Amino acid sequence: MLADGLLLAIFRPCQNFRLFPFTTFHNLQMGIDIRRHHVKKGNRAAPKSEDAYLLLLVKLYRFLARRTDSKFNRVILRRLFMSKINRPPISISRIVKETKGSNPDNSKTVVVVGTILDDERLPEVPKLTVAALRFSTGARERITAAGGEAITLDQLALRAPTGSNTVLLRGKRNVREAVKHFGGPLKGGKPYIESKGRKFEKARGRRKVCLFTGVHGVWLTSLRLQSRGFKIKSTHK
Questions:
Q1: Can you give the residue ranges of every domain in the chain?
Q2: Is residue 131 within 8 Å of 155, Cβ to Cβ?
């Protein structure tokens, strides 16, 4: 009975659960979380991909995140859970640019949970040690030709199990073509266009059937019409 009294004292002030009346411990029933009913966590606890290599990396870094106090391993594990859209690629030129201040002598290992791509606009590649999920053929060849190393994330775990002497980078997420179309009306989103011919997008602002929209568009249309000799009557007095 003492245990029943303690349970009553604990559960009675709790307002988050609707508890059914009970008198003894055996009559205690499960309550309903009113505030967060049917609410699921949005964070991933495992990757959706069935890639065997990725699942092995998750197993490795889950062990390291549990057995070490390093925040680096927890960040790597969380990024391994992400979708491909949230693991964007990064080019060699971007790596060189971003590590100019944090890694001037290129002594640290650059870590990217994603793909490394080549950039033909970069004439010379410095000696780099890069650890990533995968490399394009051109990027791997240029890194190794410069005397650097292109290693995998499991090789990185053997070299730096706590992430010491590393620089963690990731690519830009919002440079995809699809992102340019996001947003509602008057939000600056790029429209989806089916026809771009003489009577369609090329005629924007020149034909009455497809004028510019919005305040700025009306102003541009009026300027174009005035330049062609049309007189525009102002409605403002």
A1: 1-39, 52-169, 193-231
A2: yes
Q: Which two tokens stand for residue 39?
A: 């609410």
Among 90, 171, 96, residue whose Cα is nearest residue 127: 96
141-157 mean pLDDT: 98
DSSP for residue 193: -
Query: Do residues 111 and 201 make contact, with C-beta atoms less than 8 angstroms apart?
Result: no
Q: What type of residue sits at position 102?
A: S
DSSP E strand stretches across the chain: 90-91, 109-117, 129-135, 149-151, 166-169
What does the angle CA 19 – CA 20 – CA 22 come to, to the nearest 5 degrees? Answer: 110
Structure confidence at residue 20 (pLDDT) = 47
Query: Which among 23, 31, 32, 20 has a CA at the least distance from the CA of 5?
Result: 23
Q: Which CATH class is domain 52-169?
A: alpha beta
Tell me which of 83-92, 104-113, 125-134, 183-192 is least confident.
183-192
Within 10 A of 151 (CB to CB), how many other CB atoms are there? 18
User: How far is residue 69 from each of residues 63, 116, 149, 159, 162, measured CA to CA in Å?
Assistant: 11, 28, 27, 17, 8
Cβ burial, residue 168 (10 Å; 0-12/13-18/19+):
middle
User: How is residue 15 annotated by DSSP?
Assistant: -
Q: Quick one: tokens of 216? A: 């700025």
| DSSP code string of 63-119 | HHHHHS--HHHHHHHHHHHS-STTS--EEHHHHHHHTTTT-TTS-SEEEEEEEEE--
**Measured distance CA(215)–CA(234) in Å, rounded:** 14
